[in-house]
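Write out the 3D structure for:
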Amino acid sequence: MEKKRLAAEAFTNTMLRWDEHPFALKHMADRHFALGVTHLVFHTYTHNPRLDVAPGTSFGAFIGTPFLRGQTWWKSMPLFTAYLARCGFMLEQGNPVADVLWYLGDELDHKPRQDSPFPDGYRFDYVNYDALAHQIDVQGRLLRNSSGITWQVLWLPPQTCGRLTPQTLQRLIELVEKGATVLAAPPMANATLAGGVENQAFAEMVRRLWGEHPAEKGDRTIGGGRLLWGLELKEALELLAIGPDFVSAGGLECCHRRSENADIYFIAAGRDAPLTGNVGFRCQGPVAFWDPLAGMNEPVTLLSRQGEYTYVSLNLPAGGSTFVVFDRAGSSDTRWFSKIEFDGQTIVDAGDRTRLASGRPGRVQGLTGGQENQPWVDYPLVQYDIVAGGRQLLGRLDGHYQLTTGDGQVVEVNIAGARQRTLDGPWRLTFPAGWVAEENQHITLAKLIPWSKLDDPESRAFSGTAAYECTVDVAAIDPDERVMLDLGKVCHIASVSVNGKAVAEKWAAPFRFDISGFLVKGVNTITVQVTNTWYNRLIYDASLPEEQRKTWTIHAPGPQTPMQEAGLVGPVMLHWGKLVDLNGE
């Protein structure tokens, strides 16, 4: 029976600190999505009967991530769970795609470590003898199970398959004769203790598969199939003309699913570095980015088609992710480009194999002691966007742009009038009543600083949501202008409104907002509500007599613990980009 859902316990944090927030958890979820998990079961939501204390209790005090109604960021949880739900929905479409079916062997019945060496760009599934004998068959030259999942080769690693049973050899013979391709070295011995007739049968099956005196390396046609041995796995795949499913410079967190009409790749950047560069996919057809964070999709406009591969230019921040979706049954009028040059310098070349993206996956055993769960990593603003289905360029830097289309045409445009402005201040910072002294509830800052650097100790230790507000005078917005608000570094969630109208809320970097439709000519008020964790207030309260504390939980950081940065760090910038038509179709 087909099983679409693969569930796993998630966020079982053995170092509970009360500084957890959704973005700090995202890269862990993404890594396991890329490994094939489709449904996360939170550890844990704790029963909190008291409504008069915050944050409240946490299961076991030291373990589990505190998903509680008393969290400072609880009101933002729907954004986080919507992200996880979108990923899970996409990852349960169709079937997983892998080229290699990895046989576990007859002396092991558990999977190897997740970091076992395997060629970059290929995926695999594991199979034991029971599944090999009863669920795997051959269709054409592909191995296939009852759910319709297929593999191109069956691989028996010599390290774990040096001893096989007669039953396994018999099954290999059946599969190869039906047309399967098997990568397996001759076994050194029978894995059972049986002798006599059964051992003679074992020796006969070895001869039938590998010949009377097998050489160190071999390639035999048996029935409708093929048996190879003595080669490294990557060598064998190359000999069989099975190219990688995705092409990168290595270390890419990626998984692939195929539905009736689409190929769906999930790509995740690591926690501590952006993922930029080209990635090749063994797919053709119209292609789009599906952003699970925003719940939106847009056509890919920077790509290169080379043989059976489509190379896509990626630009993900640290901790970022996207789905790359190929519509095999569809058509598209999107205009795409393979190369962009700016003032004579190439800034993107999707067909350049020297510009492949390189990933940095996390360790199987998690972070080492002292590593920050999600460090802040600057992510430069891209100076261009190709929009409107490839028919317009949004330039954020003045200069000459030259774009090469997929069929070799060159389109040249000039951008003039792009500019930026830093919002230094003054800023008005407002805390909710009851958490700081009344005289510190409203503060005017001559320049932007996070509240964790304020002079007042209680304000500096504030945990929750506070509002930064400033005004900016702008001239009339031209129809061909787009204005982006870039908040820079935020600790840790930001909700933006302009002139009292809500723009958006974000819980993951980069904290950039298109505010073009919200600005008016003249004075505009920009409000940024920022939410941090309970960490700083718990440390502060631990230094106070119990009767003066405003928080309570079972386990909290001690009074000597260093506090963390909190609030709006910035720099806060406004970027005016200019839209130009890409003529010359």
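The mean pLDDT is 93.
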